[in-house]
Amino acid sequence: GSEGDTIMSRVLYGFIQHSSSVLCTTSALSSSLILSKRAMSRRSVHEYDYLVIGGGSGGIASARRAREFNVSVGLIETQRLGGTCVNVGCVPKKVMFNCSRHAEVFRDHSDYGFDVTLNSFDWNKIKESRDAYVRRLNAIYRSNLDGSKVDFIQGEASFTKDGAVEVEGKLYKGKHTLIATGGYPILPNDVPGAEYGITSDGFFELDHLPKKTVVVGAGYIATELSGILGSLGSETHLLIRQDCVLRTFDRTMSEALTEAIDKGPVHLHKRTQVKLIEKRPDGHLKVVTSEGVLDDVDTLIWAVGRKPHTETLKLDQVGVKVNAFGYIIVDDYQNTSAKGIYALGDVCEKFHLTPALNIFAILYCSLMLHEEEARHKR
């Protein structure tokens, strides 16, 4: 009777109290999660008028040009400032070229009546001087960015779905975003043992002059590196697939250069393909080609092409289209398939040359920001 009703009332009262507490707690947690999500959406999102991904020649030229329009600019770079040209391209390569020219001049001295003997060559000395010069240029680029009041952001960049760019857990967003991440040299994927070789980047890490070198490729990188090593005293073999080097350049120049290389000191192997690389217990390489075998090779350098730095950017998040080779597709004005996102330099398929890139970067930036100014005035 009444006692049962009393017990039931107490149970119901306790249940209601408990449910109320649970509901309050759940409500509080839901509110907390909503607030947390809102806070996350607001976390460290630094907005810029212009955001540049890539601190190479094009990215830096464009960023500094943008500052002349008095807009806020951020620049993101994973490694050292200056890009391929300054760090593992034009600049250190020309230092090594000039070094090899000195060796050539020494050899010609006797023809002009000078009694000069070249007793030795210190690879580490030129490497230290070259690397110090590159570091000085890195510092100058950083100083120029600071002087132009461009914010420098160090780290790997990737896009998020809302068009922001994430770097080391922080978010950045630009009204306009430029992709200028450059490219990198590749190893062939169809030659067993290809990994025993190095790329042109690895050339600048060599701590001694190889006694015997094999360079594979017919482009300007292969041609330059083989010429440098041959002039400095390495027994150098250049392997090309056709009959001449620089086949995409002017035919007369291509034929003249091929003829000059054929005269030495580089050993030119025409219509030759690498089939297999074997590594000996002593570290030397055996390079098996379509025409024979090159044994006791100290260093094998692959100069067979480059790829754009696009894999880690998560371009699909923002709808930026790439072609079959990974290059970003742009129109004549560097626009990608995503509004407000642009690309130039080695990440695109054309004009992989620093002087052309600098001009493109400055002109593109000027056009874009002039158009922005005009819109604000209308």
UniProtKB/TrEMBL annotation:
It is found in: Cytoplasm; Mitochondrion. This is FAD/NAD(P)-binding domain-containing protein. Its main location: cytoplasm. It comes from Parascaris univalens. InterPro entries: FAD/NAD-bd_sf, FAD/NAD-binding_dom, GSHR/TRXR-like, Pyr_OxRdtase_I_AS. It catalyses: 2 glutathione + NADP(+) = glutathione disulfide + NADPH + H(+). One of its GO terms (cellular component) is mitochondrion. One of its GO terms (biological process) is cellular response to oxidative stress. SUPFAM superfamilies: FAD/NAD(P)-binding domain (SSF51905). Keywords: Cytoplasm, Disulfide bond, FAD, Flavoprotein, Mitochondrion, NADP, Oxidoreductase, Redox-active center. Residues 48-354 form the FAD/NAD(P)-binding domain. GO terms for molecular function: flavin adenine dinucleotide binding; glutathione-disulfide reductase (NADPH) activity.
